[in-house]
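User: Structure please.
Assistant: Input sequence and predicted structure:
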Amino acid sequence: MSTTSNAALVGAATTTMISLVGSLADNKGALGRRYGEWAVSAPTIESAVAAAAMAQDELGHARSTYPVLAKLGVAREDEGLAAGHPLAVLDRPLPDWASVIAANLVIDGVLTTFVATARDSSIEPLAQRARKILQEEGAHRVHAEAWLRRICATGGADRALLLRRIDEMWGQAARWPGPPDHPGYAAAVAEGMVSEGPDAVRGRVREWLAAQLRAEDAAAGLADPADWAGWDEATRR
């Protein structure tokens, strides 16, 4: 490969990673705020404590991820953790506990799966933060799975609402990694910045969620996004 071609590949990869890392931090910060809003109104004392702990984790993940942008050549002004462009569903408070659990399952699931692809990233600060985030996200996954089982066992309107919220969250979160053939993402994989592309991220989350739902004799629509015409790499939505 010529020097010019290699520079173009690295440039495309870097542009995509700037978008991914910045959006990861934006969504982590938004998740932290949304979880925190339920720390005083969750259905049980234990779940309120868990919501507060997850909020603290997510805000910490956001705060530690933004500095990675400097390694990618982005001078970010400190606008606080409320800045940026998270997924639309996180722009406003989550309306019910089912939405909190669906966000924990679906949005946190997609973000964490992406983070797992960066644990050996050639961007060393990202790799370091990815490994730390993954250590803390294990408890979030246990929380999500336990509440999925609990709500599905309750049945009735509670179960139906959770499944509807999962569908709604998937419709947005599945678009976050981007189109399957995105050249910048392919370049990032080729450069070792991440280990897998968008389809692999979606596929891993889908496989895990589908297995959890099957165990409760339930299902949700977890199809790949079909229309990418309006997708924007800057906001990843």
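The mean pLDDT is 94.
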